[in-house]
Specification:
This protein is α/β, with parallel strands linked by helices. It contains nine helices and twelve strands. It has a six-stranded mixed sheet with strand order 8-9-10-3-11-12, sandwiched between helices. Strands 2-1-4-5 form a four-stranded antiparallel sheet, with helices on one face. The chain has a two-stranded antiparallel ribbon with strand order 6-7. α3 runs parallel beside α5, α4 crosses α5 and α5 packs parallel to α6.
Length: about 260
């Protein structure tokens, strides 16, 4: 790996001047963000501010037009060749994508597989683990998310909250360096939100590095080491939760918080 693709700071995630457009619509307009190991960074902001697009760029689910993303010193997605910026091969991108785990708004479980089989699929197909080792890891993580007794259940037999917890177990079982959560509770009935937030909180307490897009302001206030407010494709304000929620500096953040429960 060339020196230009390595960074020497202690940050696990570095985003530099990130730009992303869909056609003529510029969604990310030069985002800069650093996340240190063990940080829990919550991203808040109105719909359309670029929060989900930012996560999808980190995980290479979206290509981006300019800027750099580095995870653990490895520049993600692109290499400079002959003075031109070129997208890496699918195989190389797949290897990089394994550094992150992502939990989506929708559960994305395979309906024909049990909870345990959903968790073991990546362990066996991507990490090439033996069946018994994969099963042991899956059982461990299902127990960690409170679903030890649901290992043999199919998604249709689980509540929405339980399905999302299986999704979390599936992601963290792959031992990613960075976890990404995209509005993980937005598809849940209100009474099921707490059980999923509790699992995410437990992972935070264990020191897992996470970037969490959320509309749950109380969760962001209590669990985050830092909160980032996005507005119109840029980071409008960021800081410790107590400072950002207690003493917002920008008018846009004040207006946003006035419309949400904090």
């Amino acid at each position: 790996m060339t020196s230009q693709n390595r960074q020497t700071s202690g940050d696990l995630l570095i985003i530099e001047n990130l730009h992303k457009s869909f056609g003529d619509l510029e969604v990310l307009k030069g985002v800069n963000l650093n996340v240190a190991p063990g940080d829990v960074v919550s991203i808040i902001g109105s719909s359309g501010s670029g929060k989900t697009t930012l996560l999808r760029c980190i995980n290479l689910l979206e290509e981006f037009q300019a800027g750099r993303i580095l995870i653990d010193g490895d520049e993600i997605g692109y290499r400079n060749s002959g003075g031109k910026r070129r997208l890496m091969s699918e195989r190389a991108i797949a290897r990089q994508r394994a550094m992150t785990g992502m939990v989506f708004q929708t559960f994305n479980l395979f309906p024909h597989l049990t909870a345990q089989a959903n968790v073991t699929l990546g362990l066996r197909k991507v990490r090439r683990l033996p069946r018994e080792e994969a099963n042991e890891i899956a059982r461990t993580w299902l127990a960690r998310v409170g679903l030890a007794d649901k290992a043999d259940s199919y998604p249709a037999q689980l509540s929405g909250g339980q399905q999302q917890r299986v999704g979390i177990a599936r992601a963290v079982a792959m031992s990613p360096k960075l976890m990404l959560f995209d509005e993980a509770t937005s598809a849940l009935d209100p009474e099921l939100v707490g059980e999923v937030l509790s699992v995410i909180g437990d992972l935070a307490n264990d020191g897992m590095t996470m970037v969490v897009v959320t509309h749950e302001m109380q969760f962001a206030r209590e669990v985050s080491s830092r909160v980032v407010f996005m507005s119109e494709g840029l980071i409008g304000e960021e800081g410790k939760p107590e400072a950002l929620f207690g003493n917002p500096k920008s008018q846009r953040l004040k207006e946003f918080l006035s419309r949400t429960r904090t």
